[in-house]
Specification:
With 529 residues, the protein is an alpha/beta fold. It has helices spanning 4-14, 71-78, 93-102, 106-109, 129-135, 179-182, 184-193, 204-208, 220-234, 259-262, 285-292, 296-308, 312-342, 363-366, 375-378, 407-414, 500-519, 521-528; strands at 47-54, 80-83, 86-87, 139-144, 162-166, 177-178, 210-211, 242-251, 256-257, 349-355, 382-385, 396-398, 402-403, 437-441, 448-452, 456-462, 476-482. The strands form 4 sheets. The chain has a 9-stranded mixed β-sheet with strand order 6-5-4-8-1-10-11-2-12, with helices on both faces. A 4-stranded antiparallel β-sheet has the order 14-15-16-17, with helices on one face. It has a two-stranded parallel ribbon with strand order 3-13. Helix 9 packs parallel to helix 13 (312-342) and helix 11 (285-292) packs across helix 12.
Length: 529
């Protein structure tokens, strides 16, 4: 019987195109870390299925919100565990996704916002998840958005054997496949429908949305789903465990949704979004973000003007289409899970579902998108499912503090692979527990830090960007919320003397967390230098 390790080596050297024309990155001649030969698999590692959406609220799951139809994700929850206190590490795509993929906090990675410079391949502090798993013997197949951000040099696929990104505007990776090349006519039809949706499709028209007239396969997510299903049909290597990464662009606006998913909902059953008792954002990190950012403040004013003039029915239409987007992705997730089950790839598996951050969806006086540290933006849906999850946990809800950086050590442990650095996250399938959860926000230029427990949230922030701040105590402000009695985070208790002991205890927790996090930077800097 041929030695599997020798077979893999010889296949890579020969540049085999593999299965269904899905060329490996090696066959395309891409240089760099992706050309490392995979290590021998132990034979016991579970297939790891990583499902991800973009900008999906933590409560946009049927198991947590009966107004939403997500039967396939609900099925995962019933055969796994829901972490209902999970948060992202930054309410912004690029830092959140880099943090998750490297298992480190945005400040440790020096990736602070969507517009900031990101990490070149030569400066990666450790192996990102696909490279880590490929080294452990996994076949690594990535479909959809990673959003590594802007780099000085074109990025590699960072460990993916098979890579389909989608549209080129999502990010260029050497050797990846794109809808621009394979279905340019369909992509052109899609772009015509969203032409007036604004930057990131998050303008007023993008959140108003429409009943899409574009065929599903011509949507960017439709293309990615189709290529993923094609790969599963004949592209899976039967001799290696599988790491399948499937990451969609929605429910992020624009809200142009196929009719069949809009028809799942009755707009008359939707309540209006509750609004705060005050008209202008009070003395919060969000108020200073609006002032400090040249783009965020003006964009909010356009939303405020538009939604203030709408009827309640018109406003509810946006919520309906956002939920319909969630149902549309759930449909694709179901197709992929059914295919994996038919292949026998779920018998020994760890299945993960999450999103990179949430969506304000008209809260706090008609505010949309993310870019703040309130729960609607910073909390994320998180499900662990599959045979790797102990059966006694199936159908349960875990209320421990959880973070997206926890996924890196959780996956590494299940894949039986050692990590180069000691990550700040914890294995979610162990009994360890964070004291609180952490998130950071830098997009306005003035840093803000969150420390959160199930009951309390503390936010500390500067009122000026770092390059303009004198770092005096007067420029440091705070917010304190009782999440049990004030889930909307409308009543800031930071300066209320009745809660000073709680405020100081949370400050100590945040301070110690930052101290421990930054003390670990020495090893990280040595690795990346």
């Amino acid at each position: 019987m041929i030695n599997r390790r020798k077979f893999i080596k010889s296949s890579l050297r020969a540049g085999l195109t593999g299965y269904l024309g899905f060329q490996t990155i090696e066959a395309l001649g891409v240089e760099g870390e992706d050309q490392q030969v995979p290590s021998q698999s132990s034979g016991n590692q579970p297939d790891i299925i990583f499902l991800m959406s973009d900008q999906q609220r933590w409560d946009a799951l049927g198991v947590l919100n009966p107004n939403i139809h997500t039967p396939n994700l609900d099925r995962l929850a019933k055969n796994g565990v829901v972490f209902n206190q999970a948060v992202c590490q930054s309410p912004s795509c690029v830092p959140s996704r880099n943090s998750m993929m490297f298992g480190l906090y945005p400040s440790q990675l020096r990736v602070f916002g969507n517009g900031s410079q990101s990490i070149d391949d030569s400066q990666m502090p450790c192996q990102p998840l696909p490279a880590l798993l490929r080294k452990a013997g996994y076949q690594t197949a990535g479909f959809g958005k990673t959003h590594w951000g802007r780099t000085f040099e074109p990025k590699s696929t960072r460990g993916f054997d098979v890579r389909v990104v989608g549209a080129k505007e999502v990010g260029l990776e050497k050797g990846a496949r794109y809808q621009d090349d394979e279905n340019p006519q369909g992509l052109s039809v899609y772009r015509k429908e969203v032409a007036d949706y604004g930057p990131g499709e998050e303008g007023v028209a993008g959140y108003v949305g429409c009943t899409s007239q574009v065929p599903e396969r011509d949507h960017r997510d439709g293309y990615v789903a189709e290529k993923c299903l094609e790969f599963l049909e004949t592209g899976v290597d039967p001799n290696r465990p599988l790491f399948l990464y499937l990451s969609f662009l929605k429910p992020h606006a624009g809200l142009n949704v196929p009719k069949q998913f809009e028809d799942l909902y009755d707009i008359n059953t939707f309540p209006d979004t509750e609004q705060p008792p005050w008209g202008q954002e009070p003395d919060t990190h969000l108020a200073y973000s609006d002032i400090g950012s040249d783009s965020l403040g003006p964009r909010y004013q356009t939303w405020l003007t538009a939604w203030s003039g709408m009827t309640p029915l018109e406003r509810r239409r946006t919520t309906l289409r956002y939920y319909a987007n969630c149902s549309w992705l759930d449909h694709y997730f179901g197709q992929v899970m059914d295919k994996l089950e038919n292949l026998g790839r779920l018998k020994n598996s760890l299945i993960i579902y999450t999103s990179d951050h949430g969506e304000m969806l008209g809260e706090r006086n008609f505010r949309f998108s993310k870019y703040c540290l309130y729960d609607s933006s910073v909390r994320v849906p998180l499900i662990l499912s599959g045979s790797a999850v102990p059966e006694n946990l199936h159908g349960t809800v875990d209320e421990r503090p959880a973070e997206l950086v926890d996924l890196y050590p959780t996956i590494a442990r299940e894949a039986e692979v050692s990590m180069e650095l000691k990550p700040p996250g914890l294995n979610l399938l162990d009994d360890q527990k964070h004291i609180g959860s952490f998130s950071e926000y830098h997009d306005s230029g003035a840093p803000a830090y969150m420390w959160r427990t199930k009951k309390w949230k503390l936010i500390l922030f500067l009122t000026k960007p770092l390059d303009a701040a004198k770092l005096s105590p007067d420029e440091v402000k705070g917010e304190l919320y009782n999440l049990e009695t004030d889930p909307h985070e409308w009543e800031n208790l930071y300066n209320n003397h009745e809660f000073s002991d709680i405020r100081e205890k949370l400050k100590t927790g945040l301070l110690m967390h930052l101290a421990c996090t930054w003390s670990s930077l020495t090893n990280i800097n040595q690795r990346s230098s």
